[in-house]
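Possible regression after last week's pipeline update?

I re-ran a chain I had predicted before the update to compare outputs. Posting the input and the new output here so someone can diff against the archived version. Not blocking, just want to make sure nothing changed silently.
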Amino acid sequence: MTSWIEIDKKSDFTIYNIPFGVCSINGSRKRLATRVGDQVIDLAKVADLGCFQDLRISPSVFKKETLNNFISRGKRKTSAVRKRIQELLTTDSFLKDHPEVFLAYDDVEMHMPVEVKDYTDFYSSLDHATNVGKMFRDPENALLPNWKHLPVGYHGRASSIIVSGVDIHRPKGQYKPKDAKKPVFGPSQRMDFELEMAFIIGKSTKLGDSVKVNRAEDYIFGMVIFNDWSARDIQGWEYVPLGPFLGKSFASTISPWVVTMEALDLLRISSPEQSPKVLPYLRQKGQNHFDIDLKVGIRPENGEETIVGTSNFKHMYWSMVQQLAHHTVNGRNINVGDMMASGTISGPTEKSRGCMLEISWAGTQPITLNDGSQRSFLHDGDTVAMYASGEKDGKRIGFGMLESKLLPVK
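New output (post-update):
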């Protein structure tokens, strides 16, 4: 496909993508949008022109403040809208005569794309789990006995998920310094990021129902980049015996554009062999992993960015469909807009580690940024930026950039 809109060859937002998000202009009402190249397309105005009338979708759907209502229409409708946009941008359509529907990306404010009522964070990267196990448990037996039998996860705090561009403050809490006999209270001294991806639920279930592994993708609308901020010292003191709490719940940042599963079809690859063999309800068919390049950078206050980690979503041991099947096997219901994150995505090399805990090996191996400063963990004023994209047969699909700055304790 070739669009009549000028699109840089390196853009994440090619005609093959067509993601969905929520934007506003100069304080105006929020509305649904998509993006092609550096142009944001106001879908509310496109709908008012009658472009989706034959799809039986009311223009009011595109004037909502989140994607939830749109997503709840079902994949048949949302996929038809995506295809219609592609048609309008690749044919000699009347949209050429309506420049008011096109907005420069730099002129819009992006908002949370979905209302998230429930959020789950998994722990599904084999290399990440192995590295953490080596650091804190047993180098010879790094994984806990259950890790290769089920996708480990925990229920997180949905209300503190924020969109890219919203800065956060360094959290306070209890932690126990090394060799100290008692815990202390104060600002976290070991602030970290976690390079993750997250998927968004597009179809609800009733309490008591389970999602079958080979039907699970029917319930997944799309994906975003996910930075699960972590206060490692607070987390380390509190997590036994019940797991993450204040060390994780203060903030998680997502990218503003939701890339649909239809777009991501281009990047599908075979899933890795799992040994030992998983239980029947987790046995998947088809290509359920995705070749998405990931990178994360740190930009000091008034400084240039240093890429500190490069990984790939294909390094996941547990797939999204396995995560969702396991999550619902006990009858737990899901709702449109629920978000489920992958956990830190690390690869097999030192350069492919997805968090500072691994990159600095629990603070024992500081790294040097381009400005000469060193980091074991994040400093106040540091901006963390994350990127995700993939390309096949000359076709590129990407998520753009996620970024947020760490401010001093409030």
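Follow-up from reviewer: compared with the archived run. The radius of gyration is 21 Å. Marking as no regression found.
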